[in-house]
Amino acid sequence: MKLNNYPDWALALISGILVGVAYLPIPATFFIYFGFIPLIHIWLNRSVITSAAMSYLAAITAHTIAFYWMGINQGTTAIIAFLSLAGTVFYLGIFWVLAGGLISFLQHRLKIGLMIFPFVWIAMELVRSFGSMGFPWGDLALTQVSILSLIQTVDITGTAGITFFICVLNGLLYLALTSQERKQFIYGAIGLWMLVFVLGVWRLNKIENNSTPSQFSVAVIQPNVNPVQKWDRSFRAELISLMDSLTIEAMAQQPDFVLWPESALPVYLRTSSIRTDIQSHVVKNDIPLLAGTVDREVDEKGKHYYNGSILLNVDGTYNMYHKLHLVPFAEYIPLSYKFPQLDKLNFGQGNFEHGTEYTIFNVHNKRFGNMICYESSFPRIAKKFVDSGAEFLTIQTNDAWSGDSPGAYQHFAVAQLRAVENRVPVVRSANTGISGIIAPSGRAEQSLAFYEQGIILGSLTFMNENRHYPGGDVFALLCIFFGLSMIVWEWVKAWKTDDGR
Description:
Elements: H1 8-22, H2 37-45, H3 48-67, H4 78-110, H5 113-128, H6 154-157, H7 159-178, H8 182-209, E1 211-222, H9 227-230, H10 236-251, E2 257-259, H11 274-285, E3 289-299, E4 302-312, E5 318-322, E6 360-363, E7 366-372, H12 379-387, E8 392-397, H13 406-422, E9 426-430, E10 435-438, E11 444-448, E12 454-463, H14 474-500
Helix pairs in contact: 1-2, 1-3, 2-4, 2-7, 3-4, 4-5, 5-7, 5-14, 7-8
C-alpha cells in the first residue's frame, strides 16, 4: 500500500473510520493497531496546517462513528440531540488538531514526529480529561476491554499505558509499511503485542488466583423502565409499585445490600413519604438499600437541586451522596454558577449543582463509594473513592436514553476499566441495562442484558491482600516528562548544529 497514492482527505477518512469502528461493540478491536497509520503519514510528510486540518477531519469521522448514539437521545428533541452530537464531535476534534499539529511541527523542526507521537497522544488524553468538559470516555484504552488480558496493566500505568501500547504499535506498523527493513518492524509489532498479551494473561491469572468470592452479597435491581415514561405522572403509581415488588423480591433472597439504578423514582426520595415505605423494608429485613434519587435542599440562598443517591440504613437513618461531576448541557450549563443567567437557556437539561464530598458509605462493615452515570468514566473519581477507604465501588446509571446502542456497552466497558485500575469489585445498576457485578480482574461475573427486567444476586469477589495500586496519572505524567525532555534534548542538539554552521 503506497500511501502517497491517496489524497490527504482520503487518508484522514480512512484513519477516522478505522479508529471509530474500534470503539464499537463488534469484533474490531484490532483496527486501532493500524488505524493511525494514514494519519501518521500526513503528520510526517505534510505541512503543519495540512496536518492540523486532516487531523480534524479524521477526528470528526472517528468520533461520529464511535459516539453516534449521542444523537439518538430519546429524552430531548431530534434537533437538540443532533446538536449535542455535533457539538461533542467538533469539540473533541480540537484536541486531535492540537496533537496532530504539534507532531507535524516537531517532525519538520526536529525530525522526531514518530517518536514523539505516543507521548503527545498521552498528553492530549490527559488534558482532555480535565475540567467541566472533560471526556476520558474517548481514551484509546476503551477499545481494548473486550480482551481482558490487554488491560491488566492499568492498575500500574492507568489508561495511559494502553494508549502508549497502541501508539507504539501504530508506529512500528507504519515503519513496516514505509521502510526498506519491513520484517524487523513487523516482528517488532508482533513481539510487542505478544509481550503485552502474555504479560496480561499472567497478571489476569495471578489476580484471579489471589481473589476470593466473599460472603458479602449484593442484589442489583434492573427495572427496565422507559426513561421518558418514568417522569409521566400517570405512570408514577405503577412505577412505585414495580420498584416495591422488585425490592421485596430482592430482599427475599437475603442479600447484604440492595442497589437501585440512577433516579429510580420520580420523587425527591429523601423528603418524600415514599421513603417511609422503602425504609420499612430495609428495617424489617435488616438489609440496607442505595437508591438513586434527585434531591432538593433549601437554605437562605434558595433552592438547590442535585442528582444524588440515598443510602437507607437498617437503623432508620440515611446518608446522602450528591453527584460530583455533572454532564455539561445535560445536567447543567457550564459556568452557570458564575453567570446565573445561563440557567435560563433551555437545552432540555436539568439545572443541578455539583456535589462536594466523596461520600464513603458503610453497609455491614463494608465500605464503598458510589458513582452516578458519567462519573464512572473518570478514573480520578474512582481512585479518590478507593484511596478514601472504599472496598468496592457501585455505579448507578440510566443508559436508556440512547436505546440499545454502543453507548451502553461502552459504558459497561468503562466500569470494567475502573475495576482493574483499582483492583476492587464494581457493582453496576442500570435502569434498562447493562447491570452487572465485575470482579477486580475486570471480568463480568454476572450481568443483565439491555431491555431485560430482573434482579442479579451475587457475592462480591475481593483481593486476598489489600495492596495499593499506583495507577492514576503517574505513568501519564512520567511520559509527558520524558516527551518534554526529548524535545528539549533534540532542540538543543539542533541549536548547537545550527550554531556550529
